[in-house]
Amino acid sequence: MKLFVYLTDVDAGAGPHVMVSGSHNRGERQKRFDVLKEQDTTENGALLETFRHANRFEDRHVKAFFGAENLISIDGRAGDAFLVDTAAVHKRLLPKSTDRLVFQALYSLLPTIKDGVSAVTVPGAYRRYCDSAGDKAVSEAFWRYSTRLILRDPEVEDG
Question: What's the chain look like in SS3?
Fold first, then answer.
């Protein structure tokens, strides 16, 4: 999941986020594949190959496969936020008339396919955290789980 927060007002001229409704659903994608296979045309064969093997798609392919009616443009005011399942087909449009600023945060329990994750080892990090957090500190078990991809403390993990 990604959290997006518009830091500026975003309309069609500022390059809004665009996504395809329902494109995150593998079952629905498979139904669309099956329909295209049954029609068995050269154009459909090329479209199927595009969606089987490409990571990026041209607008014309997205419209042909999912239908233009399923494209959703997300406009908003500065401060508006939305969550996106990035398994869905999505993109941002290029700003045409005004600048766009967006904050984004990725939430994942596992390393992403785009970024290698390498935890930093800091002996004593949990102890120092507890000293500063006092009675608001989280348990060692929660610490190990929540920081496992970012920060390692051998005193907690091996201790």
Answer: CEEEEECCCECHHHCCEEEECCCCCHHHHHHHHHHHHHHCCHHHHHHHHHHHHCCCCCHHHHHHHHCHHHEEEECECCCCEEEECCCCCEEECCCCCCCCCEEEEECCCCCCCCCCCCCEECCCHHHHHHHHHHHHCCCHHHHHHHHCCCEECHHHHCC
Domain borders along the chain are 2-106, 120-157
Phi and psi at 53, nearest 5°, equal -120, -15
Residue type (1 letter), 40: D
Instruction: Kindly report, residue by residue over 85-128, the tens digit of the pLDDT.
Output: 888 888 888 889 988 899 999 887 776 666 666 788 899 999 99
Token readout for 68 is 């233009």
pLDDT tens digits, residue range 4-48? 999 999 999 999 999 988 888 777 777 777 777 777 666 666 667
